[in-house]
Design goal:
Length: about 230
């Protein structure tokens, strides 16, 4: 049976430029919706993180006033999937050849650790070279920044992608005092980053790279990956 790897951050705090600590964790819908789509399509899903550490749930993603009416179902699904999987795989020990796709969900964690994680960078470089599918949702595209080749070049420069926009960060109330903004940084690094209306589903495919702008994009991006794998 073919396997898909979901790579999670380990961060539970996002340090701000004013010295405050913003609690974070994985965003329930961004883990649950792809996991649900992938397993329904017959794929086995593994979870990995730096050091195999399990990140907590971002409480905002279980608050219906923030995350919408289905958030409780997503939180329950994600927590159950992670509990049943057991200890997460250590990212440093993952072999990219074991997987047909690598997917990076968000929450603010990836802007804390995954953007500079060398093990993730190695996996993404190897996956891209092999033409394997790479997916990233919301703040997950921060993890793509880790993928630097032997010459120090970012391998996703010039690629079209979606990610949580600067506008959405401002509307969410986390742009002020953020150490850096994802959309702006992706563009500065050479990505062709574009966005749709705030908090509306928006997915972008560029070859083997599939990206989603925000939590609402999680299921559509997963559907696109499943369809591509079927071909």
């Amino acid at each position: 049976m073919s396997k898909i790897l979901i790579v999670m951050s380990t961060a539970d705090v996002w340090e701000r430029t004013d010295g405050s600590a913003y609690p974070t964790g994985y965003w329930a819908e961004e883990v649950a919706a792809p996991h649900e789509k992938f397993t329904e399509a017959g794929y086995t899903v593994d979870f990995a993180s730096p050091g195999g550490v399990l990140q907590p749930l971002d409480a905002h993603s279980a608050n219906p006033e923030v995350a919408g009416p289905e958030c409780a179902r997503y939180a329950e699904h994600a927590e159950r999937a992670l509990r049943e999987f057991g200890p997460l795989l250590e990212l440093s020990r993952v072999d990219v050849d074991d997987y047909v796709a690598i997917v990076l969900p968000g929450g603010h964690g990836p802007v804390v650790d995954l953007y500079r994680d060398a093990d993730l960078g190695r996996l993404l470089v190897e996956a891209d070279a092999a033409g394997k599918i790479i997916g990233a949702i919301c703040h997950g595209p921060a993890g793509l920044l880790s993928a630097v080749d032997a010459e120090g070049r970012w391998i996703f420069a010039g690629r079209r992608m979606a990610a949580f926009t600067d506008e959405e960060e401002e509307l969410f109330g986390t742009a002020e005092n953020a150490p850096w903004l994802l959309g702006r940084t992706l563009r500065e690094k050479g990505a062709l980053h574009s966005g749709g209306p705030a908090y509306q589903a928006c997915t972008v495919r560029d070859g083997n790279l599939f990206t989603g702008q925000n939590p609402a994009s999680s299921a559509p991006m997963a559907d696109a990956i499943v369809a591509a794998l079927a071909k």
